[in-house]
Design the sequence.
């Protein structure tokens, strides 16, 4: 009986060491696998058999050793901290990338900065004041005005194109979020099935945790495991992955007459009402700040940066509307402020050379009046006034073109106060005075106005300030997130040296148990073979 129990104990040690070797080999194999968390064999004593009672305690014999659990070396607190900071990092990185692109658009367009274009237009007007009757100076003025229009339209077009690119990123993010939700639900079912009898589906858990890490970068997530090992995930405090179900996101237009889209929750929306009531993922009416702890997720950063539509100079008219709906969006802010400058320059020149009505303006060399320099893409009638409800009536960047009449005939440019007078410089001097006079502020909530040059400098400085502030936040978040991730990796990552050391330890234990089995086996064999030989 003693030999059999000794064999049993040795076999238990053999099997436990074999399990530890397999786990160590699995760790080494996955040393470079993304999201893999090292596994550890926890051993414990098996049951004890009581063979008697001494004076002070029971007399027991151990029955070997067992594998209690093969666990993941994971820290839930570090996971939670990493995902929270990773979500905030995703938010600021998306904004930083957008501002960097805006800076590239404004900085150098085909090798010529917009500030130089403004300066060239000013210099051509200065030269025109010296010789208003000269076709050469008039031609230079029209040439620089043409470049001004082309670059203005180009910049606004590129801002709109980038806005569309951000919109595509929003759609891709929503698609990926829904895919992650379905993948987590599937893994929940697999893990629950495999662990129903007490086993650990550690590799599937690694996949599920890696998906939560990815999800945390895009949105603000919260999560927990239920009693059946299902991971329940919420996004923005709304249940996303539940037991056997995913509440997927869908897309709707950000606002009326906009091609941009926002994500919403179909299961919380009333789509049958007229008009439909959408429960959007984000309420942009609530300011996004670190103090409010709602500056999380690259998806929110993309939506806020992109805005809800293309902005223009009219969005600076109401300080309240600007503060609430325009300023939170870097793209819409840049569009509105840039267009305000373009509209100011265009209307100043047009109103000076061709006032609306056409009967009180200066004359061209041919005696005609009312020929504007800058026209609208789809409206050639100077007397059609601007209407904020119709974007095609606005003298706005992207909607401008040169008046073909003056491009083809410089004589039609109205630069004379009296008909038949060729050398009148007072009209151009009036333009130069208006150029240097205050016309608007960069922010409607601020007091004071700036001239065109100071306005543009303030505009560029403001974009730089936005970029600098966001870059600092990104740097801080990268540092913090990196520190937490390093702590996670030190605990959860696989160390080749440590695993090789464990393999040697478990190999020695396996060899020792194997030798015990061999010795006990020899003992039993000798006893069996030699029993009954005496006396024959």
Sequence:
């Amino acid at each position: 009986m003693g030999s059999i129990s000794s064999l049993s104990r040795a076999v238990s040690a053999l099997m436990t060491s074999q399990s530890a070797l397999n786990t160590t080999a699995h760790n080494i194999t996955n040393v470079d696998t993304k999201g893999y968390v090292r596994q550890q064999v926890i051993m414990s004593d098996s049951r004890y058999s009581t063979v008697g009672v001494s004076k002070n305690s029971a007399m027991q014999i151990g029955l070997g050793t067992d594998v209690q659990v093969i666990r993941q070396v994971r820290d839930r607190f570090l996971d939670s901290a990493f995902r929270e900071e990773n979500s905030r990092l995703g938010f600021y990185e998306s904004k930083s990338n957008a501002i960097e692109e805006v800076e590239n658009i404004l900085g150098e367009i085909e090798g010529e900065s917009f500030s130089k274009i403004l300066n060239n237009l000013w210099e051509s007007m200065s030269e025109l004041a010296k010789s208003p009757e000269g076709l050469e100076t008039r031609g230079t003025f029209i040439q620089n005005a043409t470049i001004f229009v082309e670059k203005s339209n180009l910049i606004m077009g590129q801002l709109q194109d980038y806005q569309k690119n951000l919109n595509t990123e929003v759609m891709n993010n929503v698609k990926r979020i829904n895919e992650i939700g379905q993948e987590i639900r599937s893994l929940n079912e697999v893990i629950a099935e495999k662990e129903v009898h007490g086993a650990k589906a550690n590799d599937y858990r690694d996949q599920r945790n890696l998906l939560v890490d990815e999800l945390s970068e895009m949105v603000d997530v919260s999560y927990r495991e239920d009693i059946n090992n299902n991971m329940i995930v919420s996004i923005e405090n709304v249940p996303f992955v539940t037991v056997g179900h995913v509440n997927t996101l869908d897309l709707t237009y950000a606002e009326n007459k906009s091609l941009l889209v926002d994500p919403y929750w179909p299961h919380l929306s009333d789509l049958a009402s007229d008009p439909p009531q959408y429960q959007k993922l984000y309420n942009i009416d609530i300011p996004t700040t670190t103090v409010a702890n709602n500056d999380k997720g690259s998806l929110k950063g993309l939506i806020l940066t992109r805005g809800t539509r293309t902005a223009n100079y009219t969005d600076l008219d109401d300080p309240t509307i600007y503060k609430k709906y325009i300023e939170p969006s870097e793209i819409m802010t840049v569009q509105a402020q840039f267009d305000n400058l373009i509209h100011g320059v265009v209307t100043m020149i047009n109103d000076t050379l061709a006032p609306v009505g056409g009967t009180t303006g200066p004359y061209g060399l041919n005696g005609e009046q009312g020929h504007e320099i800058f026209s609208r893409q789809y409206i050639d009638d100077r007397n059609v006034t601007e209407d904020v409800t119709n974007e095609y009536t606005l003298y706005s960047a992207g909607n401008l073109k040169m008046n073909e009449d003056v491009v083809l005939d410089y004589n039609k440019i109205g630069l004379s106060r009296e008909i038949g007078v060729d050398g009148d410089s007072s009209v151009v001097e009036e333009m130069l005075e208006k150029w240097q006079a205050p016309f608007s502020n960069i922010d409607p909530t601020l007091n004071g106005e700036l001239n065109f040059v100071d306005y543009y400098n303030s505009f560029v400085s403001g974009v730089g300030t936005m970029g600098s502030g966001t870059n600092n936040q990104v740097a801080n978040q990268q540092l913090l997130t990196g520190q937490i991730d390093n702590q996670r990796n030190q605990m959860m990552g696989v160390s080749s040296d440590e695993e090789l050391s464990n393999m040697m330890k478990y190999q020695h234990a396996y060899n020792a148990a194997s030798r015990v089995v061999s010795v006990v086996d020899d003992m039993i064999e000798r006893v069996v073979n030699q029993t009954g030989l005496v006396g024959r």
